[in-house]
Amino acid sequence: MRWTATQIPDLTGRIAVVTGANAGLGHETARLLADHGAEVVLACRDEAKAEAAAARLAAHGALTSTVALDLASLASVRAAAEILRGRYPRIDLLINNAGVGMSPAGPTADGFEIHLGTNHLGHYALTGLLLEPLLAAPGSRIVTVSSLGHKRGHLHWDDLQLERKHSLPEAYFQSKLANLLFTYELNRRLAGTATIAVAAHPGNAHTEFMRHMRPWQRAIASPRLRALNGWLLQPAEVGALAAVRAGTDPDLRGGEYVGPPGRLGFTGHPEVVRSSDRSYDEDDQRRLWTVSERLTGVRYRVPTAA
């Protein structure tokens, strides 16, 4: 049976923080959560776009708020986390959705390669800084959105910032593999608490991600060619179901990975799937954690089981 929006449970009284919720997959994720009663915080880099997106949701009765968050700046991450901790003593759901893809932009404000710094290190820091209110909410979840591209990713341990040889695809794939290594290590560290970490991927969805593609690639992916490319791409509202299921399905366990099924995984309603063998390497998971802690200065404080 396909998992659809009709299976999202009642989320009344739950607090959900969604990064990059002003457009695309993030906005659809926020809408689905709000439609089922959650109070949703749109954590976005562009405050004006965030306010406009929140207003669109509020027009349909949703409970929303916004917070400025630039994941490419650790100072912004710390400021956003401080605001959220002051505003909410507990947070039921954190969806690490925002990110850059094939971006030609320069390094982050802290000098990190833009994909690794934004997609992984920014979310690593945000999650750690919000761990206290997350742990305060029984049954809370941390969902990190990866990508099919992680299967082509490698962690370049001798050159994580890709300073010697930078490639946009390689940088993006590395960051998406890092998302999974982070999730699996985080879930292991959360053992003994009531909080779990789950990963998701949306398949191939029509989003603003397409703007960094070559013109011919954008033409092939055009929604106007839906009759021809329907096997390759799906609407954002379907792609967003993966993160929503990861965050709300009561039958899921920590450390699982949710997304469109099948050999290619391009389209379809979300199921529990398997990520690459490389993503399950526990040595790499621990190594990335140590590096992330050193680079961001954020140390997770998880209470040990009694």
TrEMBL record:
SUPFAM superfamilies: NAD(P)-binding Rossmann-fold domains (SSF51735). The keyword Ion transport does not apply. Keywords: Oxidoreductase. Transmembrane segments: none annotated. GO terms for molecular function: oxidoreductase activity. It holds the Pfam family adh_short. InterPro entries: NAD(P)-bd_dom_sf, SDR_fam. NCBIfam families: PRK06197.1. Belongs to the short-chain dehydrogenases/reductases (SDR) family. This is SDR family NAD(P)-dependent oxidoreductase. It comes from Cryptosporangium phraense.
